[in-house]
Amino acid sequence: MPLPGGGGTAAAAGLPASGEAAAAAAREEEQEEEGEEDLRDGGVPFFVNRGGLPVDEPTWERMWRHVARIHPDGERVAERIRGAADLPKIPIPSVPAFQPSTPIPERLEAVQRYIRELQYNHTGTQFFEIKKSRPLTGLMDLAKEMTKEALPIKCLEAVILGIYLTNNMTTLDRFPISFKTHFSGNYFRHIVLGVNFGGRYGALGISRREELMYKAPVFRTLSELIFDFEEAYRRCWHTLKKVKLGHCVSHDPHSVEQIEWKHSILDLDKLSREDFRKELERHARDMRLKIGKGTGPPSPTKDRKKDISSPQRGQASPHRRNSRGDRRPSGEKKPADSKAMPDLNGYQIRV
């Protein structure tokens, strides 16, 4: 089934007026759980390929039908491409490899070039199914598959790929940053991978808009980075409504921890400008403290030297990581996490 985006109303769905508010709240909460981005066609549904690769015939045909519906040229564009016998061969990007002496900023630029070379996926069908509740090791296996297939990706896939390609940069802190914006009656969602190297913040990712993806690690504070994204959204006529910040991701590709996507949830409608800045800096301090206490992203080498027979030793379980004592939601308290255990019902995301 197609996954509806951020547009529409309960009345349009045929729901009674009395249930409109509840339906809207439920829909909004469901969308809040997923991070995807769309600046051009908010509210337009898209599909997720749940059958793996190679793409099976039903999914393939469904994708082309969807392309015909959403493309301005309709069925003609699908017929023109599918009927062509001399389509150019698409080059496969090479996964970046680094010398030990290569500086981290140069490595980040190379990783971003690779992500960009894969290109943004405009087909209306996401090729890789990503469940945020999966343990890190499973997501890293999926990222490895992305490098083998070299297919176009969306922003959540780019975040997983960015984590995979920077796992060996143990002096680099990585954490997810999600944005919710409003434009022309619709809500839009986007996610990037925040990075911190040597006390300077930046970001990796992919987007239809150049200014909403890569940020070199030159920002002195986390708030400077977020304000730069906010200004980029403003130039796109979008109003930033909410920012969600996760904690640092482990560098151990075999970790069974889940990524903490939403440690701090900042609602800009409920925060003054100064309070927003303070909450961002509080989150930055929380990340530094967590790393300082040894509960942040471990070095794979050090972690395995401690106890080779038990690679999970010293790692916090998902329940402990999300405990009240460890979490410090800022600006808005998050309800008790009902997805502490892996979600077995499937993962849906929205454009």
Write out key terms for the chains shown.
globular, disordered N terminus, alpha+beta, six-stranded antiparallel sheet, 14% strand, 351 residues, disordered C terminus, two-stranded parallel ribbon, single chain
Distance between the termini: 14 Å
Secondary-structure-based class equals alpha+beta
DSSP strand content: 5-15%
Overall body shape: globular
Helix content: 25-40%
Q: Calculate Rg over CA atoms.
A: 20 Å
Q: Would you tell me the overall average pLDDT? A: 79
> How are the strands ordered across the major sheet?
6-5-4-3-7-8
Task: Summarize the biggest pleated sheet.
Answer: 6 strands, antiparallel
Number of helices: 10
Topology order in helix (H) and strand (E) letters: HEHHHEHHEEEEHEEHHH
In total, the number of strands is 8
| Poorly predicted sequence stretches spanning 5 or more consecutive residues | 1-19, 29-42, 299-328, 333-351
Biased composition (Acidic residues): 29-39
GO biological process, one term: regulation of angiogenesis
Biased composition (Low complexity): 10-25
Region (Disordered): 1-45, 285-351
